[in-house]
Amino acid sequence: MPDNLNGGGISAQFRAKEPPFRVVKRAELPLEKLILFYVISVLVAVVIGGLFIALNGVNPFLYFKEVFSGCFRSGVAFRGLVRIIVPLLMVSLGVILAFKMRYWNIGAEGQLIMGAVFATWASRAFPGLPTPIMLIVMAVAGIIGGGIWGLITAFFKCRFNTNETLFTLMLNYVAFYIVDYLRNGPWQADPGFPGIGRLAANSRLPQIFRLDISWIVAIVLVFFIYIYLKYTKQGYEIAVVGDSISTARYAGMNVNRIMQRTMFLSAGICGLAGMLKVSGVVSNYTLDTGIASGVGFTAISVAWLAKLNPFGVFVVSFLFGVLEKGCSVAESTFHLSAAITQILQGLILFTILGSDFFIRYKLQLTRGGRKLNEHNN
Amino acid sequence: MNTIINFLFAAVKNGAPLLLGTTGEIITEKSGSLNLGVEGIMALGAFAGYYAGYKTGSLIMAILAAFLVGALAGLIFAFLTVTLQANQNVTGLTLTIFGSGVALFFGEILIKQRPKLSAALNALLSGTEIPLLSKIPVIGRILFSQNILVYLAIIIAVLAGIYLKYTRLGLKVRAVGENPAAADASGIKVALTRYVNAMLGGGICGIGGAYLALINGRGDWDNNSVSGQGWISVALVIFARWSPFGALLGSLVFGAFYVFQIRVNDIVATFPFLGFLSKIPNAFYSMLPFVITALVLVISSVQKKKVGVQPSSCGINYYREDR
To answer: Does A363 contact B at CB distance below 8 Å?
Structure first.
């Protein structure tokens, strides 16, 4: 409709108030563009981080060089890197399952701890078992321990719609203090000193390439989760529930069962990560309050950065692992606190969280904005 | 008697930083933002507050610095979740990672200088008796002989309670938290409301962090002064049923749990019949706040309560064109 028909004056007045940009939903971006967006975001974060490092009187190029060589310069360094990556990767894979269903499991920390507690219990309860059987028993115990810790929240979510974000969060601390109790009480190794003794030799993971086999489990799990989500009926059910619970109900799915089963599995994987940690070199074969040390929280960010894609999770946990290992090496070289790890991880997350907006939406010049543009030209 | 008074005095003193963190988070959540970054914001506030107090010797500057840094963190949160529509859970957790990292980074530089707060500031922080009121038996000692930041915390909580419950502005905040689409339709600026309250809430959490650094450190800087109290504050929001008035009581209870495990032997010495209490391991007392919070969460969901539960739109972004 021509403007002048119903009073050009009013229309022009409205247009003057019109913002220069309009936000429009985008069609899905092709993968290579998506990756380009992410690479740019990470670069922006690295540049900001680099400036920060430079402000502290350290050459950022030398710093980042040290971060990388700190991870790859020797077998020892690389093995240190792998030990950081494996638990992070596994827990991230675990939370993917819940997140796909839009179930906000932020209790991975507690689920990992409970997995480690149950595994330690199994190791203490059946001392005489030969190593392979013992490890299987411990793994099952770990999965059950973590799984139950997650299942509790899903049970109440299904029955009473209890908020899972807050419930899973609370259970983290309950798990933490259970370990605190055990190391000061029934499982205390030396009187007067808080601590649980190292696991017996039959409860320790065998080694390949001087690394315990947990990394093999983690890599197998990447493929397992990928196939599970993409090609199985249960994976499909998770996707439908995540999309819309009502749709799932109309389609005749038993939403409660799917939710509880998926949450058990998600938490069980976190529990398995706890079992592998407690029976590995990384924890010195001991259960202690630091067994999870924030991995459960970092994993949530990792899963989100990776768009809940198992292979993406592999890439992101690798990157985060490099930052963590590398920055701790660079700390001794440049006397720059390893807290830079968290700053860099935070910056990367911020830029990618921000860039997500530009992946989903695009800014379009409005008529007012276009005029403004012409005027400026 | 003295044992009880000293115990309650310590409970109030240790509950005050939780009260600040909780009040801040309640304001944020009431406007519909679930900011899980309280732990990081409090760490930032702790550093900023301590550093400003250390450099200027002024308590007002310390509080102001902590508030501003906290508000800045709230601004980052609001920009990412309101304007850029990022997921709130992930943004909040990122804020925790980032904030703790920044605070630790600068804290490690600061600790090498072996900082000490000035004697004047330390004296100011050690306690202020309110004239007349502090002479009231029992209550006077417990409530009116505290340090100045305790009073500030209580005042902020009461003001926040009035703001949310009894003012027009607060009504708008609650409308945005419960149903942003309806609020938008009635002409309330949803985005602005969420920005302002995320920043206000963040600022108050920041002061909570400053409390931990200034009071608990007794003049020295401690890199681990926050260590989990931000998360306890998030828990306390549930226990307080999203009301700053509830937070007054809740922070006293949580503060009492904390003090109890340290003083259990004193208490048992005074009241021998409570001897069984000292046999309970400390871990259980530490765990109790979280167990109770989880129970509150479950019970209120079982009862299907409509009051004292999380605002319906808390944690969910509002995008106008999705209506």
So the answer is: no
Cβ under 8 Å to B: A residues 2-31: 23, 25
The alpha carbon of residue B108 is apart from the nearest alpha carbon of chain A, in Å, by 7
Residues A221, A90: contact at Cβ < 8 Å?
A: yes
pLDDT at B163: 94
Largest CA distance in chain A: 92
Domains with residue ranges and CATH for chain A: 23-58+336-377 (no CATH), 86-335 (1.10.3470)
Per-position b or e across B216-245, b if 16+ CB within 10 A of its CB: bbebebbbebbeebbbbbbbbbbbbbbbbb
pLDDT tens-digit readout, B58-81:
899 999 999 999 999 999 999 999
Q: Given an 8 Å threshold on Cβ–Cβ distance, is A342 in contact with B301?
A: no
Rounded to an integer, the average pLDDT of A25-48 is 83
Q: Which of A308, A310, A375, A317 has the alpha carbon at shortest distance from A345? A: A317
Please tell me whether the interface predicted TM-score (ipTM) of this complex is above 0.90.
no
- Supply the pLDDT for residue A19: 67
Q: Is the Cβ pair A173, B290 closer than 8 Å?
A: yes
What is the chain A residue with the closest CA to B312? Answer: A163
HSE toward the beta carbon, residue B99, CA cutoff 13 A: 37
Largest CA distance in chain B: 66
Collapse the DSSP code of A188 into the 3-class scheme (helix H, G, I; strand E, B; otherwise coil) and give the result: strand
CB contact under 8 A, B286 and A177: yes
Q: Do A300 and B93 touch (CB under 8 A)?
A: yes
In order of their start, the domains of chain B are: 2-322 (1.10.3470)
CB-CB neighbors (< 8 A) of A177 in chain B: 283-284, 286-287, 290
Q: What pLDDT is recorded for position A4?
A: 42
Under 8 Å between Cβ of B155 and B148: no
CB contact under 8 A, B85 and A173: no
Q: What secondary structure letter does DSSP report for A292? A: S
* pLDDT value for B30: 92
Q: Do A301 and B93 touch (CB under 8 A)?
A: yes
H-run or E-run covering A125: helix A108-125
Average pLDDT (A225-232) is: 91
Kindly report the pTM of this predicted structure. 0.86
Residue in the structure block whose two tokens are 């871990």:
B283
Highest mean pLDDT: which range of A336-340, B112-116, B165-169 = B165-169
pLDDT on residue A7: 43
Tell me the mean pLDDT in the region B217-226. Answer: 83
Dihedral through CA A326, CA A329, CA A330, CA A335, nearest 10?
150
